[in-house]
Amino acid sequence: MPRPPAPRGRIGRPPVTSRAQILAAARRLIDQDGWEKLTIRRLAAELGIGATTLYHHIRDKEDLLVLLLDQHVGQLERPELPSAPKDRIIAAATAMHDALAAWPWAAEVLSADGFVGLLDESALWMVEAIVAAAGDHGCTQAEAVHVFRSLWYYTVGEVLVRARSPHRRSDDRRPAHRKTFDAARVPHLAAIGEQWPALAGQDTYRDGLRAFVDGLLAQATGPST
Amino acid sequence: MPRPPAPRGRIGRPPVTSRAQILAAARRLIDQDGWEKLTIRRLAAELGIGATTLYHHIRDKEDLLVLLLDQHVGQLERPELPSAPKDRIIAAATAMHDALAAWPWAAEVLSADGFVGLLDESALWMVEAIVAAAGDHGCTQAEAVHVFRSLWYYTVGEVLVRARSPHRRSDDRRPAHRKTFDAARVPHLAAIGEQWPALAGQDTYRDGLRAFVDGLLAQATGPST
DNA sequence: CCCCCTTTAGGAACATGTTCCGAAAGTAGC
DNA sequence: GCTACTTTCGGAACATGTTCCTAAAGGGGG
């Protein structure tokens, strides 16, 4: 624990930990035991400090997770964006999706107003890219924001639902899927029957995204171009 | 506490509470003090029983919330569905959305595979309506399920994000929205600037839904019709 | 009327996130 | 070296969801 030699002129008891060290330790724990095992007390133990001391460096656990997400998104490298507005939107939205999907615990933090409200500058390029591309396509400012928000909702929903679906512990008695549908009440679902889990398990984010972008752009620009 | 007079021939210690009573008490508490105040111990107190006794009637708190959501959705009256497939999908999806949006705490339970995995028959008509309408429009079974899932993601995302946005307590120092964007890095966001909160606050679920349905149906049926 | 079996009740205890508040460890002025 | 002030630390304590385990309350057979 090489604590820095008193940053000169500083007054008061010297900190024993920094936010950076906390984030590093948190990542270490997550990489090691999975993010479900990340608890305040465990994290404090990893740092060799008291649990409540953490609260002098982070507001609360959600804050910690947002910070971690920030860090993660910030380290992502920014892909080449296609020139066609529609493709650019799809590329940026996919980048958002992939960034979130890779971190299941992001689900605990998502929501709020997402990137825009919580995350720092490092993630904003995705928002900017979508809004800019929508503008290039002819959307007004309001329409462009609408495009972004709609895609954000879709993306968050996809990530959240898929993140929590395997949430069911193996010893959970709750049936993951009802075996039989009442053919009289819900004939189509009954016809699908056993195939539902297989169909619902497929990754169709990109297909849905394309459809959504098509619909949004068609709706936005009215009779022009 | 008029406990039923021993359901005849029953063996073992008589129950002092039923699941129905628990649900009723839970609703009472929610209506009274808001759903954030619904805690296991408070609920038990309301029923005049021990806290752990509840766990003999419900699996866990999430289970309780799902049960309440079931009950709520089941009491909804089923609207007239338009005949045009596209309009029917929009009507059914809107019904899902409104059912969820009315119960902010639904957000805590959503996810999983949503209606299909968790809720009981009373909510399935919405799923059935969407899948059936997609079929009427010419979608294959797989495409119809894709349509439903995509709309489900969008709907869940919208409900979750909007439910948690006012989540910020008033005494929360975390800024709800950064005041200034770096015009060099994110010019479009900077141009929007102050107007973002106003734009993001608008309810655009229906517009987005329409766009999404248009896109999904156009994508699904390929060269036919 | 007593003992066995079944079913439910509920207290003790634990893990977790979090708040409170007094103790600890420095610097600055004297 | 002592006192005052500032900043950080961290234990005690609390609310909550949950699991464990033992006690309570019945019926049935003898």
From TrEMBL, chains A, B:
<dbReference type="Pfam" id="PF00440">
    <property type="entry name" value="TetR_N"/>
</dbReference>
<dbReference type="InterPro" id="IPR004111">
    <property type="entry name" value="Repressor_TetR_C"/>
</dbReference>
<protein>
    <submittedName>
        <fullName>TetR/AcrR family transcriptional regulator</fullName>
    </submittedName>
</protein>
<dbReference type="InterPro" id="IPR036271">
    <property type="entry name" value="Tet_transcr_reg_TetR-rel_C_sf"/>
</dbReference>
<keyword id="KW-0804">Transcription</keyword>
<keyword id="KW-0805">Transcription regulation</keyword>
<dbReference type="InterPro" id="IPR050109">
    <property type="entry name" value="HTH-type_TetR-like_transc_reg"/>
</dbReference>
<keyword id="KW-0238">DNA-binding</keyword>
<feature type="DNA-binding region" description="H-T-H motif">
    <location>
        <begin position="39"/>
        <end position="58"/>
    </location>
</feature>
<dbReference type="InterPro" id="IPR001647">
    <property type="entry name" value="HTH_TetR"/>
</dbReference>
<feature type="domain" description="HTH tetR-type">
    <location>
        <begin position="16"/>
        <end position="76"/>
    </location>
</feature>
<dbReference type="InterPro" id="IPR003012">
    <property type="entry name" value="Tet_transcr_reg_TetR"/>
</dbReference>
<dbReference type="InterPro" id="IPR009057">
    <property type="entry name" value="Homeodomain-like_sf"/>
</dbReference>
<dbReference type="Pfam" id="PF02909">
    <property type="entry name" value="TetR_C_1"/>
</dbReference>
<keyword id="KW-0678">Repressor</keyword>
